[in-house]
Specification:
The protein has 205 residues and is an all-alpha fold. The N terminus is likely disordered. This is Phage protein.
Length: 205
């Protein structure tokens, strides 16, 4: 009886080679920083090692399918010292990248702080001269509502760790009364991300 089920039918070598090539490309993508960034930091190195091992296996298999024929091409086993050297080089590379990123982040934070403080000082003087007390009150209320809405969007729909941190930092800029008031008027619980934010727990100091 002939098997007409395509899912279990033998795959020609040409199709198998094309599939392996596509899978190699996917494995390469999985090693990029953009994908690793979605994982907890302690899992990123493990994920990279697994993705690299999978890519090596697929690449070796692809070499065996040259000329659309199956050739046995044993891959030489690397000496343990070579593997240790590669591991050390990778560790040094990762450490160097981290140092560069930390240095760049520190420089940005210094420039950011200086710019923000200067803006606050000059903007304060502008508002003293141009705005009435009632206008200032309205501005503060509007800005607070914008910050609350921004924090809510970061906290909703299973946020990333960085999103949650940014949201908490945003909420820390606001008074407890502002946050509690906003939650009290949200009777329909439309802002579910803010529902579990406790002003007493998150602002102990």
């Amino acid at each position: 009886m002939t098997n007409t089920n395509k899912s279990t039918a033998p795959m020609p070598l040409t199709e198998l080679k094309a599939w392996v090539e596509e899978t190699c490309e996917l494995s390469t993508l999985l090693q990029t920083k953009d994908y690793k960034s979605y994982l907890p930091e302690e899992k990123q190195e493990e994920f990279e090692a697994i993705a690299f091992s999978v890519f090596n296996c697929l690449e070796s298999f692809l070499m065996m399918l040259e000329d659309n024929e199956l050739h046995y091409q044993p891959k030489p086993i690397e000496e343990e010292s070579d593997l240790d050297n590669q591991a050390n080089e990778m560790a040094q590379y990762n450490e160097l990248v981290k140092e560069v990123e930390d240095s760049d982040k520190g420089a940005r934070e210094i420039a950011y702080d200086d710019t923000i403080h200067e803006y606050i000082d000059k903007r304060t003087e502008q508002l003293k001269e141009q705005a009435t007390f009632e206008e200032l009150i309205n501005k503060v209320a509007r800005y607070a509502s914008e910050l609350l809405d921004y924090a809510e969007r970061l906290l909703s729909d299973k946020p990333l760790n960085t999103d949650s941190e940014t949201a908490i930092e945003t909420l820390d800029m606001l008074d407890d009364e502002e946050i509690d008031l906003f939650k009290s008027v949200d009777v329909d619980n439309e802002y579910q991300g803010l529902e579990y934010y406790n002003t007493e727990l998150n602002k102990e100091d």
